[in-house]
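Before relying on records like the one below, remember that each one covers exactly one chain. Contacts with other chains, cofactors or solvent are not represented anywhere in the record.
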Amino acid sequence: MTQLAVQEGKDPAPLYVNAFTDVRQTLMALAINYQNGMKNSVVQDPKHEKCGGNIRIIDIYKIDDKTPLLLLLYQSVTAANPTPGIRWIQEICSRQAKHVMPNINASVLEQKLMLTILDMNSKRLSPDTVFVDRMESEKDFKLSFLLPIGPLTFEDIGKLNLNTGCVVCGGDTASRCSQCQSVSYCGKECQRADWPSHKGMCRSLKDGTWHTIPMTTMMPGTTPGMVGTTFNRRDFGQSVPEAKVLDDTIPPQNVHGDKLFLIKMQTNRRPGEGHALIYDRQRSFTTYFRESRAPAVFKKFKEEIEGPRGGHFGGGMFKMYRWAKWIGDWELSVCLDKEPQADIIW
């Protein structure tokens, strides 16, 4: 798709930066392949090492003048068990005079998002009303569809993060990781396949101490009805986040469901009531942990932020990254004493 954008004189969107943008480009690639007479595609990570998926487009239907619907069969393929995917490719090649199989590169995160969407859409189709002539190797493929994906709001992201099924294939879940209880799987095969990417988070959570933090959208010195916004040094030269009327009666948005996510906590040593600024990578929420709400817990976190496991100092503030999860409209449970082992891209 990058090459197509260049040909049309447009600036191509960078790949593997935003999974939602990547899914939109993959959807375009599937449509172009179909238009060129190639209904079958293999989706793999760029290095062809971790996981992938096989897709066969059955047909394209017109919803209206601007909205096509791609009816398709799909299968998730893991590195631990690539045999079903290989059998499908072999059967496709045996039926074609030219052994051409388009390959679409997609990051692991993009593939998980794509599987989530496909799994959600598959539940809207009834096998009794849609007949598909399947090949022998497609008996376990799922029937689903794709529609054009527009820009997503945080509410949309939140819906995608709820009840997404197995973290690898999107299927019905049967168990959670026994060590951290943070991810769900349909079975041992998918759990083994996900271990290389999950182990960093899992090990950083094992035997951690969790504390409940009461949240507020009001920092010390502000009152309801005031207008304000938050921004950092990276926002200079760009559009400043929209200012909003401060209201401590409307809970922050939860786009993460019951899943774990990384937060950044920041404190300073200015006079007055102590507080910590807390937000996630998407900036889906910006809240404060005020010392007056839970003095003993605040003291522990302040010592941790300014200690050897925190200590990221910059811009006059101490910072640290920790795993957290929502446990109420105004409460976060945060792992205090374990540094995330995953790569932190903020």
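Residues 1-8 have pLDDT under 50 and may be disordered.
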